[in-house]
Amino acid sequence: MDLYWLFLIMATLTVLSPGPGVVMTLSNALRFGFMGSLGGIAGIAFGTLLVAGISASSVGVILATSAVAFTAMKLLGAAYLFYLGVRLWRSPSLAFAERPTQSLGFRRRFLEGLTIQLTNPKAVFFFLSVFPQFISPQGNFTAQFTLLVVTYSTLVMVIHCLYAFFGQQAKGWFGSPRGARVVNRIGGATFMCFGAALASAKR
After folding, report:
1. Beta carbons within 8 Å of 36's beta carbon, 6+ residues apart
2. Which of 7, 54, 114, 162 has the fewest Cβ atoms surrounding its Cβ within 10 A?
3. What distance separates the 2 farthest-apart alpha carbons in the chain?
């Protein structure tokens, strides 16, 4: 815990790095605006809390040591990313000024963000491999683990909100129907690429 500042740097760089969650946040911000992206961001952040709990339990150890469990988890995650990619690729080109019903949209995007995080075995391994390096065996495990998890989840919220804010500012560049199609195709293709990478990942 004396190296908490180093954990902050490592966690910030990890959250900043492009991944399925970042792609979802940017896509939602471009299509639905900043407020419309908050559901997915909240789902990803809440998923982080759940994944941290999983990694601290025997389930995390099973995923780390069982080839069958790892394979099943990664294939499920890859299939879901492919599903999101195909759906986004084939979705109609929405005018960015349009707004769906926020109450329904928030719940739906929250579940999408939550599912992306829960079906990513790499998130479990991040907590299993990185967190122990910053926890003192002589200290209170629960207090230290909680601090690190809350820090990481807060960084997820803050950084993804920044992605969403700047994504919304870029809406003017993609205001035409053709631009909207480009966003859908790029976002869909990126999701499918992440799915293929996850499906081929090794422990």
Report:
1. 28, 29, 99, 100, 102, 105, 109
2. 162
3. 59
pLDDT in tens, 9-58: 878 877 887 778 888 888 888 878 888 899 999 999 999 889 888 777 76
Which SS3 state, helix, strand or coil, does residue 19 take?
Answer: coil
Tokens 């090794």 identify what position? 202
User: In which residue are the tokens 């200290």 written?
Assistant: 139
Contacts of 133 (CB under 8 A, 6+ apart): none
C-alpha distance across the termini of the chain, in Å: 27
What is the number of H-type helices and E-type strands within the chain? Answer: 8, 0
Count CB atoms within 10 A of the CB of residue 142: 9
pLDDT digits (tens, 9 = 90+) for 78-120: 787 787 778 777 766 554 444 444 445 888 899 999 998 887 7
Instruction: Provide the 8-state DSSP code for 101.
Output: -
81, 115 in Cβ contact below 8 A? no
